[in-house]
Amino acid sequence: MTQENLATKMDVNAIIEKWKNVSGSLVMMLHSVQDQYGYVPRELAMEIAQKANIPLARIYEVLTFYHFFKLTPPAKYQVAVCTGTACYLKGAPDLLKEIENVIGIKEGEHSLDGKYSVNSVRCIGCCGLAPVVSVNGKIYGQVKPADIKSILRESTKGEEHHG
Amino acid sequence: MAKLITQISETFKKQYANVAQRIIICGGTGCIASDSHGVYEAFKEEYRKRGLEHCVEITSACREKSTYISKSGCQGFCAQGPLVSVGDIFYTKVKVADVAEIIDKTVLKGEVIDRLLYVNPVDGVHCKTLDDIPFYKKQHRILLADCGKINPEDINEYIGRGGYHGLAKALEIGPEAVIEEMKISGLRGRGGGGFPVWLKWNLTRKPKSKEKYMICNGDEGDPGAYMDRSLLEGNPHSVVEGMIIAGFTIGASKGLFYIRAEYPLAIERIQKAINDCYKKGLLGKNILGSGFNYDLEIRYGAGAFVCGEETALIASVEGKRGTPRPKPPFPATKGLWDKPSSINNVETLANVPYIMTQGGKWYASMGSGKSTGTKVFAMTGKVKNTGLIEVPMGITIKEVAYDIGGGPLKGDHVKAVQTGGPSGGVIVPQYFDMPITYESLQEIGSIMGSGGLIVMDETDCMVDIAKFYLEFCVDESCGKCAPCRIGGYQMLSILEKITNGTSEPADLEKLHDIASAMQKASLCALGQTAPNPVLSTLKFFKDEYEAHVNGKCCPTGKCSKLINYSINDKCIGCGACKRACPVNAISGEPRTKHLIDQKKCIKCGQCFAACKFNAVVKG
Predict the structure, then answer these.
(1) Model-level pTM?
(2) Last residue of a domain, one of B86, B113, B130
(3) How far is residue B148's CA from residue B132's CA, in Å, rounded to a whole number?
(4) Which domain does B380 fall in, by range?
């Protein structure tokens, strides 16, 4: 077993130990896993099933119900456009279109090299700054389509540039 | 019981007396996005470099005449962030590079830096203090008063400003007296339903059970609203205190915060507040010597709008899919783990400490009719000042959108104001003078909702807005009951037909039919209220729908499939549009008028954006 795998195993054990005896803690367990790995890998879901004695079907029932949980590894640069009402009215659809153009993938897709993902997300509560774009959690406010290229350039420093 | 609280309060006041000046840097999510953290660090660094006396928390180590550099919660003026105040002087859009100048001029000499003041967009006047800004002046801030003033991570300051005195009082007078006080206050649920709080607590208090639960609903899912986030971030102890008082009143042994995972800062601040309460003996066993035992924990939401519904929220806290179940039995008799539970929203709970200390009568003196107190709204959209506002119930839309909001961003009138998010409806100008209460909004087909307030102008297409909200509800429908799952989908496909020009006149009738079936037969409020945005826009903007259906045109030009682009005589033949067109639909020799081939045109609007001579027109 490689070093990396070992670390993975221990972390999951700690998470399961922490929540195992708390009733109704499945959602919290999955949050902890996603917090560490960026998504919920199938192997870990299976491990939780085994060790916490929860049917795998129940785990996936929960995982697929909530928007927050991801089943695939996150891209290196996760670009998200807020499509809450305020952002929608102030031009979020145009931003999304521009980002799709610049990166060359559609909303909900990963680029083939795994570097970028583009998503529209629900309100992130920064309505005062609408419209809002976030890259790996960093929030950019009052964005215009013309700003997209420089935002991507800034947040992906050292990578080859688009556009 | 109040002794410990008084002690902490006195100690804090004594230590605070050493503070000669206070610099507050807004640390809400919005300002952090505009780098307020960098500004905060820059202030600390600059003070350290110059060797000026300062402190970053209030402790016994604070020396005399020091400057207190503190962060605050969200002040609600996010568009102008990062916000910095030095004493009374209020600066907006402060950058790291401005810090040294602020210290040189404002802190040391008391001079005002004009450039950093907020300029009122209506009359161009520079506003020196918060109270000079119309956006703040016309509000009535109770819950938000301390957001932006206190350090949300300092329990001593909260207590020093009168916090947890309400809890001490509640423990002293007992649950029945608390319920009586709540009854007098007339406080109603701020999450949308408007159910009287005292009644909910009384219903949960009655059943005999060893275990009872108090739950705080912080799953703020309404897109375009962030009142709860600001309260949780800006004054977390007010919500925690509300939770303890509520738990004590209903006889709960445990309380749970259910907060969206998308609000990491809110979770962090509430966790810190809970930890500090344990340290001070305000949580745990025998709280303040009253014999009351109570624990608080946090559970995360995971991005499901339906979990705002009580029974769905309970299922989620139990670690299951968040699907609602039929009521009755209501959570007051059969809630979390089948035990009696009371669920209140963040804003509702934040009101409780103020009612306890200042009395139900005081609270009831604000507002109008059966809607007492104040309401926090997140005003966004096409208005000059956007942000978080707290106003007395019974205020009119006119006062909110024009006096506080400063009027429409462009043009001279507001087309409509939307409240209640995906469950609400539009308010049109003829009702702008109507006092806002739970009842009045319902009468005109909208709801109070949790507090989203979206201002729309002439360029916003009402069919498109209705479609936007319905899309949201279809996406968020849990799928358990057919009326919501199928009805929502069918309504959405009709709206899609309307906006892409393939609808028939009978479709409007169909929308009505499906909507009324959904309202009557859906299992929970999500499905019952999902048709509201459509019905409300249909009622007030029928002509707009008819233009889409019969005339196959969108009056605002928003629905791209219904737009035809053409080139008029202003065209000088520069070729910019021709180069921009992705499908080669534009032809024409240089320096002659160009032409768009309507058959090839995909209506992307690139030519419209590229033309510098206003020669490409929508129609």
Answers:
(1) 0.92
(2) B130
(3) 16
(4) 367-456
